[in-house]
Amino acid sequence: MTEESILNGCIQQEPAAQKELYERFSGKMFAVCYRYAGNKQDAEDMLQESMVRIFSQIHQFQQKGSFEGWIRKVIVHTCINQLKKQKKFNDCVEITQAEYLLSKADSIPSIVQAKEIIECIGAMPSGYRTVLNLYALEGYSHREIAELLEIEESTSRSQYNRAKKLLENLLISKNIILESKQLSSWQQLKTKLSV
Amino acid sequence: MPGSDFFEQELRERIQEYIMRPSGELWEKIEASLPIKDRRSKFFKKYVLLLPFLILSISFSKNNHIVGSLPLIKIQLPSNNKVFVKSELDISINHSSNQIFGPHLFNAIIEDASFLLPKSNTTTNVSSFYLQPDISNQYQRNQSITFYTKKPTTLPTPSFTLKPISINYLYNKNIFSEYIQKEQSGLEESKLKKRKALFVYFSPTISDRSFSPKNKFSYTNYGLNNNGNQIAHKPAFGWEAGLAFLKQIKPGVQIRSGIQFNYSCYTISASQGAPEFTSLSSNGISVSRRISNLENRNGFKNQKYPNSSYQISAPIGMMIRLNKNPKSNLNIGMSVQPSYTVHASAYLLSADYRNYVEAPDMLRRFNIYSGAELVYSKKIGQYYMIAGPQLRYQLLSGHKKEYSFRENLIDYGFKLGFVRDLP
Predict the structure, then answer these.
(1) pLDDT digit string (tens) for A68-100?
(2) B208: distance to nearest CA of chain A, Å?
(3) What is the pLDDT of residue B117?
């Protein structure tokens, strides 16, 4: 089925098209939900709610942007709403005791596996995880994040920096990436090789 | 672009295309949460030929139970015709009415209103709704509800229209679940209508038997003073295990069939004695003539011997729900169980009550049992856990017609199991 026929079928509420849409996007979208939820059970709940929402609002898709992008947006909003509802996000946003260290790490070597990174993201506090996901992975600005999460823009910024540092520490502690000194030499090597 | 330094780029490259597979059951859950409209329209397409008859039926019936034949949900809500939005706005409800099917039919949905609200400064703080219409009526699942602002606010009027979401969805999300009751072919019923389920169970049992002479023998002929008081039969433990398929045939009623294994046992008490000829039949049929070295009342070295049997059955029956709570309910079950005895040990009493004879060949291999149970079921996750007492009774005498006595096995048990919906 083409994307267009899936879209039209879903607008007509055809079960086959709905199933096809699910089959096509559930893998990627489940990974998105997992990044926000931090565990599979909550991620499944989020995906379930998101899919129901997608099917009920699919006629609102303007066909201007990418279909996947629209789906992802709905998923992200649903995840945020779920976290708000569970007050998980609010609880974690208030964390102020966490060590504040500006991240100096410039990169994550490409040797790391997505699965390991996702597991590390899942191990982070929900507040950090949410801001990190929105900023680094979804491309939201801090202003947009502030509006979405109903927090101050500066809070979003600081949360992100802490989240970034925490992720780096987690990746180092699990030997997934190298520490800063080694990292910079590794990066130089990588740059040279690529040149 | 925000978040576009090397760190974010790397993260994005690594993660954005990453795929994780949700569990296989998730689609079923999603499908169950989707509005019923499409499925019903499919139903009507399938049975389009029946539509004229349906219309005729409707036109000929005046205020009768047409509504009752539709999948309606009765929602009894508190009497307060307001929707509160964090106590900041009062939003009244304007619901559409349907002249054919009744005056109060609509679909109520409130879920994450903040997401559905248009982006507006006045609504950024809105994150939840509490719906409290003042009516106690029937709501149809596929109708929409429109919300209007009651007081002049910056919200447009109508502020927003929510798309229909099925009562199934509300129910699954535990929204208004305490107000949702079944009515006619309501939520749970319609779910069950298509429902097939697997029932797995195990019952520890205590087996006994009813015992009576076939030919009204005079006990005094053999020195016995009354019926059976000198026959030492004791109940013993057994078990039952089975697998049944359930299918809903009408609201609250399911038929079931499956396979079942039983081990039944009771003991007899007998003593060693000198071998002697005896008969299992009171009319001297040769097949019943046996040699026995087990005595009922005399002899020495008294000990217990098991009368046990392993049976395989194919129960056919039904389960009827006694109350209407879809998540925890009481069910009564009845079944007829054609059975075959696979293996048995049988110590039978001689016609003169003096001896016991080991005679498994006198067993009736094919028999019919009846079963009855009263079980409580509670929904836990995707399973209905089942527990309750049961009774199983052998309808035909357990032995061949030559045997002087009628014995019918009885199993008292406590059923434990679970029911799982099948796709």
Answers:
(1) 888 888 898 888 888 877 765 544 443 333 333
(2) 48
(3) 35
Would you call B128 and A47 a contact, using CB atoms and an 8 Å cutoff? no
> Is A118 in Cβ contact with B16 (below 8 Å)?
no
> Do B209 and B233 meet the contact criterion of CB atoms below 8 Å apart?
yes
ipTM reported for the complex, 2 dp: 0.74
In three-state secondary structure terms, A85 is helix
Element (H, E) at A121: helix A114-122
Tell me whether the omega of the peptide bond preceding residue B158 falls within 30 degrees of 0, making it cis.
yes
Q: Give the Cα separation of B48 and A68 in Å (integer).
A: 37
The full DSSP string for B231-292 is --EEEEEEEEEEEEEEEEEETTEEEEEEEEEEEEEEEEEEEEEEEEEEESSTT--GGGEEEE
Enumerate the residues of chain A whose CB falls inside 8 A of the CB of residue B11.
108, 117, 136-137
Both tokens of B319, joined, read 């389960």
pLDDT tens profile B162-209: 344 455 555 555 554 444 444 333 444 444 445 788 999 999 999 988
CB B134 within 8 A of CB B93: no
Residue A33 DSSP SS3: helix
Distance CA B423, CA B414 (A): 29
The nearest CA of chain B is from the CA of A73 a distance in Å of 11
Tally A–B CB contacts below 8 A.
Answer: 129
The verdict on B174 touching A (C-beta cutoff 8 Å) is: no
Side-chain-side CA neighbours of B389 within 13 Å: the count stands at 3
A141 contacts chain B (CB < 8 A): yes
Q: Establish if B19 touches chain A: CB-CB under 8 angstroms.
A: yes
Chain A interface mutation, best of B5, B13, B15, B167, highest count of A Cβ atoms under 10 Å = B15
Q: Is A150–B7 a contact, with Cβ atoms under 8 angstroms apart?
A: no
Tokens of A71: 């789906």
